[in-house]
């Protein structure tokens, strides 16, 4: 069975009116043992899909209960029963029936060994929510539970990421940001992601990490020269882009609807994963653009990289998202945009721009460059009255050498395994310590494992690290932090966290590294 989701257009054609009779018919069929499977299974599938599509848990949960525990439960066996159980557990989560969810997972987990870790993960989220309700200071100190969720195999990591992405889509639709943040916290604690705002699946740890880059931060001269050469030709590139946009026969694509919620963004792709690079039809109309980028190997051959013209019409909003790897940077060259302006109620937020990691802001200005790390969560918008046209191209991280670039290309092409890269990527820690890191997040505090004093928990202690290049790292945070932040302009360095053993006496420890 394949779960599908209808478009916004189909949702407007009276689907809610048909849901109740569909559910009633399916429920009647499920209570009769005389209904053959060839009639029962398609009817139930239609009812479940319809209920999921319009997000009606009060209908979906009872229906799934009948499927899984009713008198016809034996007709839903194998992978089909596994799928319906997964949907049932997730619907309990979305409707915040956490106590029932925890009990149900305990009852059925042995029946579904392939989904054991996924069930434990959503059970762990539910337990955290319940524990936080009882004691907001201690809800992240259940070390043994967290340790049991560590994915030991690549397949387990991928399965958990797919589950989180699926949960994320539904939670965003319903505006449950609190549960989203709780889920990402858990992902960080079980080493699935390096940080709350950098949720990568292929993450090389030794690379410099900055959400926003300045051109002078790139040390390779030829690298900078090529980017500057593209910027100097921005007017010719703009003219070619505007010409391309006039040709409706060209292959214009749109951002996935789950992110481009108003369908006001379109793209013309010159190069991308599993796509032909620099199609002749595009390069014939944009020879200067193709020529400059073909001569830039770090862009033309960037693994997991895209080269495209992006257009955001007035009113466009792209939901927060992030790329899967930190091995590349993204360059935005604004080709056509209105004069830089700001929201009246928030003078630090441009009317058309980009926000990274909830703190770094980029405003698009015609002819100007912006360089950022797309592995950090970022969102885009255009609330001005004029469309924004951008040349967007990915480049290999400037610290990647030629050999590493070839290896990454091999991983991308499926010829090399991540384990064969010979580099430090995210791995399960050998001990039980939780070293959660919020690299650029001043709105959270790190918490140590074990028993902690309530009287000391309300304040964050300073932690020093002498291993950074500047031999200086400060960590200052209280329960009340600033809700707004300005873009970083100076070169930043990531401080390494130091670890120390706790004494038997109650001791509070807080570790957080802020990049300066």
What are its keywords?
alpha+beta, four-stranded antiparallel beta sheet, Jelly Rolls, seven-stranded antiparallel beta sheet, Serine Threonine Protein Phosphatase 5, Tetratricopeptide repeat
Please provide a written account of the structure.
This protein is of the alpha+beta class and 516 residues long. It folds into two domains: 8-189, Serine Threonine Protein Phosphatase 5, Tetratricopeptide repeat, CATH 1.25.40; 212-418, B-lactam Antibiotic, Isopenicillin N Synthase, Chain (Jelly Rolls), CATH 2.60.120. The chain has helices at 8-11, 15-30, 37-53, 57-69, 78-94, 98-108, 116-134, 143-147, 154-173, 177-189, 221-232, 234-245, 280-285, 287-294, 297-300, 402-412, 454-457, and strands at 212-213, 252-254, 265-271, 307-312, 316-321, 328-336, 342-343, 346-350, 352-356, 360-363, 369-372, 378-382, 388-396. Strands 1-11-6-13-4-3-2 form a seven-stranded antiparallel sheet. It has a four-stranded antiparallel sheet with strand order 5-12-9-10, with no helix packed on it. It has a two-stranded antiparallel sheet with strand order 7-8. The model is unreliable at 1-13 and 422-516 (pLDDT under 50).
């Amino acid at each position: 069975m394949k779960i599908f989701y209808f478009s916004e257009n189909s949702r407007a054609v009276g689907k809610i009116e048909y849901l109740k009779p569909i559910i009633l018919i399916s429920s009647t069929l499920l209570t009769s043992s005389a209904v053959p499977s060839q009639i029962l299974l398609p009817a139930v599938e239609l009812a479940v899909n319809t209920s999921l599509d319009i997000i009606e848990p009060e209908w979906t949960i009872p229906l799934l209960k009948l499927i899984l525990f009713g008198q016809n439960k034996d007709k839903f066996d194998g992978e089909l029963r596994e799928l319906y159980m997964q949907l049932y557990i997730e619907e309990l989560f979305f409707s915040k029936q956490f106590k029932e969810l925890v009990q149900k997972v305990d009852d059925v987990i042995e029946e579904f060994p392939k989904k054991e870790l996924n069930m434990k993960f959503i059970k762990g989220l539910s337990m955290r929510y319940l524990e936080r309700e009882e004691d907001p200071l201690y809800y992240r100190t259940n070390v043994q539970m967290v340790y049991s969720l560590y994915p030991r195999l690549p397949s387990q990591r991928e399965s958990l990421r797919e589950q989180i992405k699926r949960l994320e889509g539904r939670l965003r639709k319903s505006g449950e940001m609190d549960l989203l943040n709780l889920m990402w916290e858990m992902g960080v604690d079980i080493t699935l992601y390096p940080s709350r705002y950098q949720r990568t699946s292929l993450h090389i740890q030794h690379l410099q990490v900055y959400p926003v880059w300045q051109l002078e931060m790139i040390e390779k001269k030829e690298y900078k020269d090529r980017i500057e050469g593209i910027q100097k030709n921005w007017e010719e590139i703009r003219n070619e882009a505007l010409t391309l946009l006039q040709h409706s026969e060209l292959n214009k694509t749109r951002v996935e609807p789950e992110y481009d919620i108003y369908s006001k963004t379109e793209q013309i792709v010159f190069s991308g994963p599993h796509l032909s690079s620099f199609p002749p039809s595009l390069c014939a109309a944009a020879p200067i653009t193709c020529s400059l980028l073909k001569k830039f190997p770090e862009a033309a051959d960037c693994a997991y990289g895209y080269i495209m013209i992006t257009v955001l019409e007035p009113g466009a909003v792209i939901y927060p998202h992030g790329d899967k790897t930190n091995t590349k940077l993204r360059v935005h060259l604004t080709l056509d945009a209105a004069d830089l302006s700001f929201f009246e109620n928030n003078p630090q937020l441009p009317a058309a721009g980009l926000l990274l990691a909830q703190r770094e802001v980029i405003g698009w200005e015609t002819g100007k460059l912006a360089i950022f790390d797309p592995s950090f969560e970022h969102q885009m918008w255009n609330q001005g009255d004029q469309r924004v046209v951008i040349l967007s191209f990915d480049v290999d991280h400037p610290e990647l050498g030629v050999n590493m670039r070839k290896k990454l290309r091999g991983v991308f092409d499926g010829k090399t395994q991540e384990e064969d890269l010979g580099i430090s990527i995210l791995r399960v820690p050998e001990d039980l310590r939780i070293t959660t890191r919020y690299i650029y997040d001043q709105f959270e505090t790190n918490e140590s494992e074990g028993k902690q004093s309530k009287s000391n928990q309300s304040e964050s202690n300073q932690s020093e690290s002498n291993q950074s290049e500047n031999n200086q790292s400060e960590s200052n945070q209280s329960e009340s932090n600033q809700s707004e932040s300005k873009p970083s302009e100076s070169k930043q360095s990531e401080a390494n966290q130091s670890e120390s053993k706790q004494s038997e006496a109650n001791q509070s420890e807080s570790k957080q590294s802020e990049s300066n």
